[in-house]
Specification:
The protein has 7 helices and 7 strands. The protein is an alpha/beta fold. It folds into 2 domains: 33 residues, no CATH class; 142 residues, Vaccinia Virus protein VP39 (Rossmann fold, 3-Layer(aba) Sandwich), CATH 3.40.50. The chain has a 7-stranded mixed beta sheet with strand order 3-2-1-4-5-7-6, with helices on one face. Strand 2, helix 6 and strand 3 form a beta-alpha-beta unit. Helix 1 runs antiparallel to helix 2 and helix 4 packs across helix 5. The longest helix is centred in the N-terminal third of the chain and has 14 residues. The N terminus is likely disordered.
């Protein structure tokens, strides 16, 4: 689903006023209860976007990557396998936490990757060197105080398709082959927190 479809899905959720109902339209009625507390629809970042997000963030071995709204865990798994980092996902959906945790175990990555079942607004991000997210502009804005509170100077934040209002990106990548209509925003936490 590209940016326009994701925006339409977000609009549907907001306009309906009934999160479980609107989530049921997006995910199927049987899964509506799992997404009732979600801040954004579950839409995966294509693998070429994941690859580019991590390339721009340039995680070093032994750094820690957090993925907010980690979905199927593809960012966590790619980060651990390619960059030899620690990776932590934050996900609200029980089903996605379970399936991602199972996949991490099957791949033998359980010492380096894990998923926290919880609300991304309440997670301590102080261990993060890199934060990735594919949320929405309003959710990014909601997350900004936590990012500013917890992230250390030099930490990188990479957002797929949606900017963080009030922050100036270090880089905006719109030239993504085979991923038209996608944008990646790279931010770096300043040397002194405001």
């Amino acid at each position: 689903m590209h940016k326009t479809s994701r925006a339409a899905a977000l609009g549907l959720v907001v306009l309906s006023g009934f999160p479980a109902f609107s989530q049921g339209l997006l995910y199927g009625q049987q899964h509506a209860k799992h997404y009732a507390n979600s801040l954004a629809p579950y839409v995966v970042s294509p693998q070429q976007i994941v690859d580019r997000m991590l390339e721009l963030a340039d995680p070093k071995p032994n750094e820690t990557v957090y993925d907010l709204g980690s979905g199927d865990g593809r960012i966590l798994i790619t980060a651990v396998q390619r960059y030899r980092v620690k990776a932590v996902g934050v996900e609200i959906s029980d089903d996605l936490v379970q399936s991602t945790s199972d996949r991490i175990r099957r791949l033998g990555l359980q010492n380096d990757a894990r998923v926290i079942h919880g609300d991304l607004r309440k997670v301590d991000l102080s261990a993060a060197d890199v934060v990735t997210m594919y949320l929405a502009t309003d959710v990014n804005e909601m997350m900004r105080p936590n990012l500013e509170k917890y992230l250390k100077p030099g930490a990188r934040v990479v957002s797929h398709d949606y900017p963080v209002p009030g922050w100036k990106p270090k880089l905006v990548d719109k030239d993504l082959p085979q991923a038209h209509n996608h944008v990646i925003y790279l931010y770096e936490m300043p040397a002194q927190k405001k």
